[in-house]
Amino acid sequence: MALPMKTVMKKAMKASPMKAKAMKAMKKKAISIIARGKLAKVAVFKGRKEKTSTGLQKTHLMKNKNGRVVTKKQHAKGKELFKKFAQRWLDAVMKARKELGIKGFCAVGGKTPQGKALYAKAKAFYAE
């Protein structure tokens, strides 16, 4: 006489090592506190995550005048470099425009004689 299907399956399950694995309790999904990807700094700044993959925390971040989340260190470095180089050039160009009496748009060092004169004067002020 053939055994019923239920008993055959029970015997097979007892002999199978798969039963031990199948009966394990499921683990709770671990939610990461580390923000990754393009918007990582935004997630940390808004408080959704604790830090970025590079270790930046909310205390290291700020919003710049355009509304982008940037690091305070980078912001300070950019301002410092602007003062050191670009600001001097801008001041020189403005001074040259005033001396030459140029109003409105004029390309610095453009094809026109006025632009060439402006560039030469600005370069002279920048060198001082």
Model description:
There is one protein chain. Helix content is 52%, strand content 8%. It has 128 residues and is mainly alpha-helical. Helix 4 (72-100) crosses helix 5 (113-127). The mean pLDDT is 89.
Molecular shape: rod-shaped
Q: Radius of gyration, rounded?
A: 34 Å
Mean pLDDT: 89
Strand content: 5-15%
Separation of termini?
Answer: 110 Å
Helix content: 40-55%
Strand segment tally? 4
What layout of secondary structure does this protein have?
Blueprint: H1 5-15, H2 18-22, E1 34-35, H3 40-46, E2 51-52, E3 61-63, E4 69-71, H4 72-100, H5 113-127
Parallel strand pairs: 1-2
Antiparallel strand pairs: 3-4
Helix pairs in contact: 4-5
List keywords for this structure.
128 residues; mainly alpha; two-stranded parallel ribbon; two-stranded antiparallel sheet; 5 helices; 4 strands
Entry summary:
By secondary structure, the protein is mainly alpha-helical.
